[in-house]
Specification:
flat, MetI-like fold, 2 domains, mainly alpha, 83% helix, 10 helices, 277 residues
Length: 277
Amino acid sequence: MSIGTKTSGGRIASRRTLATQWQLFVVRHIGWFVVGLLLVVWQVLAGTVPGLAQVLPPVDRVVARAAEVFTQGSLPVELGDTLAVMAVGYLIGSVAGIVMGTLIGRSRAAYYRFEPLIELTRPIPIAAIVPLLMLFLGLGAGLKIGAVTITAFFPVLMNTYAAFRSTPRTLDETARTFGLPPLQSLLKVALPHAVPAILVGMRLSLAISLVVTVFTEMIAGNSGVGYFILNSQQNMSIVDLYVGVLTLAIVGYLLNRAFVFAERRIVPWHISNRRPD
């Protein structure tokens, strides 16, 4: 084979590699192209349809206002308040859900004791529970944290319970064969098997916790992004209203990405962490 033929073949292979990489890039980021297209359509409609800008301000106005309120306004403080309340309630609810889910998942006696109470309270909407929390916790941070705690508790509880109940019997039998005491069997055998499902429940609770935090700030708060959005709506500050909503969208996305990043490092071997083809 001549040198010219080898060079030509190398160029063709390089072009194919670049084409394949470009196709993978497009497939993996097509969602962002869709988001960008929607923003362009939003901008065009707001600028061309008469009167639409009063209820749908152009994207450039929203972005400019967002930069202003983040550098000179109160939105960073409001966002910090929201995330602080959410973090406390989410952590309490997740820990409680893991503990209770482990208990009823590993102990049939505990399951029979607590299952009726869990199934009676789990379907109650948080909107129906909040008025009851107001009676006991007032209208301060306790109400918000309590609502988020309850919201985060049940998805983690159910996923933890299901994870432990689905532990293969052979794993438990192997642990007994090696003479592991119950606590070591739980920590070294059952828990590693259950961790991926527990993390799925925690990921679900993370998004719901943000929603409930904002909800409680709207009905019984004087701070937070929910209060910022409600106050903007009452004052007819339409641009600020969109800034608050888009801020929540971005924060929710970043929280999810951060959780996925952590999950891939906690259980890198699990199938859910493999990238789709």
